[in-house]
UniProtKB/TrEMBL annotation:
Keyword Cytoplasm among record annotations: no
PANTHER family membership: BACTERIAL MICROCOMPARTMENT SHELL PROTEIN PDUJ (PTHR33941:SF11), PROPANEDIOL UTILIZATION PROTEIN PDUA (PTHR33941)
Annotated Polar residues bias: 98-110
Chief localization: other
Gene3D superfamilies: 3.30.70.1710
Region (Disordered): 88-110
Cellular compartments annotated: Bacterial microcompartment
Record's protein name: BMC domain-containing protein
Amino acid sequence: MPNEALGMIETRGLTAAIEAADAMVKAADVVLVGTEKIGSGLVTVFIRGDVAAVKAATEVGAQVAQGLGEVVAVHVIPRPHAEIEDILPRFNKKPDDNTSAQVNPKQDVK
């Protein structure tokens, strides 16, 4: 996705982030790249598209999210450097082998 703008909305609360993501992809020709749960209830949603579409989408997404929770930050990077791709979360990334959770069945203790 070279030469595409990167848009970010950070909210306090998952519901507000989901609503923002939904509003953004409906409002403009943008692609939802991924989300990042930062902790303390903070969630960031990332989108890509041309600069005008990303600006319009983030404005709409922020308005919708503000009605449900707290919008912490909204930002658009018009032409992010190619190396930024390496740190963006993706929906289709496979989890690392070390991070996969394994549930052990409960054992009876006698």
